[in-house]
Amino acid sequence: MAFTLVAPRLIEVGGGSIARIAAVLQTFGLSRPLVVTDPFMVSSGLVRCCLDPLRAARMRPVVFSDTIPEPTDTVVEAGLRVLRQGEYDCLIGFGGGSPIDTAKAMAILALGQEKMRAYKVPFVADHAALPVIAVPTTAGTGSEATRFTVITDAEGGEKMLIAGLGALPLAAIVDYELTFSVPPRTTADTGVDALSHALEAFVSRRANPFSDALALQAMERIGPYLRTVYREPRNAAAREAMMLGASLAGLAFSNASVALVHGMSRPIGAHFHVPHGLSNAMLLPAVTRFGLAAAPARYAEAARRIGFAAPTDDDAVASARLAEGLVALNQELGVPTPRAWGIDAAAWEEKLELMAAQALASGSPANNPRVPDPAEIIA
Ligand code: NAD
User: Fold this and answer.
1) What residue's CA is closest to ligand 1, atom 1?
2) CATH 1.20.1090.10 occupies which residues in the chain?
3) Does 362 contact ligand 1 (Cβ within 6 A)?
4) Coil, helix or strand for 62?
5) Is 259 helix (H, G, I), strand (E, B) or coil?
């Protein structure tokens, strides 16, 4: 068995750890950050949790807040123009996965080529990039710990996966107290995103003993707390468990891979603007059922760790409980079907073949325990 492991050089974890952001920069000799965030972080004042400690350390952070959910190459290029107007030595991605991914993409382009498309998988974006310090404010994507960024091509409408060391943050700050204000819908969607990272990493054909340990720890935290955090947004124990689970899951899939759920989810996000976690949730039960027979022991162990099956259940019982448990979870979290979410049936039909082709081209479905053909993806 041979594999490669990657992780940020430093991860600060814990409630209130955002207060150490200036010290993290100083550890690496950095002092001139451009903070990449979204308009809500500015209007809600949350970004001050990041700016105040930097200013207290006599740094003068500048804010670029024009990121959008599911970021596009157009937004990345706008950020790049701001970056080039100043003498910045690092980027701080502060927000959900969208601002963090935007910061990563800007960091890659800053020291590389002009166009995001040039870095799309199967290209490996391993070249030097500007340092990124990632601070998540959602418990979901794990982007703070991954070697990926996901950027939509505004013209072609394709959600491009960019992978490589250039997209790996130098450091991350994982502070669950930043997530108390996340509304229930986003809490549920991002939580299912984290759960699907852990599950897909664990059943991936590229799983290894390190990613397994991380994925199992992630499932043990997310499983018991996902419903709680949806119902009780101020529950600190639940917020903390979800944040740890999301980062663990990020490290897990960054060192294994995601699989069919993510491969199919990206085109749905690109063509119909369904938030990433929600399109994962829509797919998770059916895609899991599709793969069960190809890796029953793995799916069964996942079911036990998440809490859908008892430790004493045998593999057949436990893996069946996994599929049932995911359906029930979606019901409890109010996950709609694509149709109920408002996607037009004719537009959906028209895009199916293209979406199936794009899913397969991303490479993620090839990591699934059962690898689908285009007709199976469409079905
Ligand atoms: P997001 O960053 O798009 O944020 C969703 C919404 O939540 C936004 O309106 C935002 O303002 C709001 N929000 C964020 N933090 C909040 C807080 N603390 N309080 C209140 N509101 C808050 O959502 P996301 O799910 O975190 O990120 C999705 C993006 O991440 C997608 O583009 C997806 O493709 C990408 N992604 C990347 C990776 C990776 O490894 N790079 C992995 C999975 C997903």
Assistant:
1) 96
2) 183-378
3) no
4) strand
5) coil
**Ligand 1 contacts CB of residue 164 (under 6 A):** no
146 lines ligand 1 (CB under 6 A): yes
Q: Indicate whether residue 181 lines ligand 1 (CB < 6 A).
A: yes
Of all helices (H) and strands (E), which one includes residue 233? none
Architecture of domain 10-178: 3-Layer(aba) Sandwich (3.40)
What is the ipTM score, two decimals? 0.99
Q: Do 150 and 99 meet the contact criterion of CB atoms below 8 Å apart?
A: no
* Residue 94 burial by Cβ neighbours in a 10 Å radius (0-12, 13-18, 19+): buried
Cβ proximity of 317 and 296 under 8 Å: no
pLDDT band at 368 (very low <50, low <70, confident <90, very high): very high
Q: What is the pLDDT of residues 190-217, one digit of tens each?
A: 999 999 999 999 999 999 999 999 999 9
**Ligand 1 contact, 191 CB (< 6 A):** no
Give CATH 3.40.50.1970 domain extents, the chain: 10-178
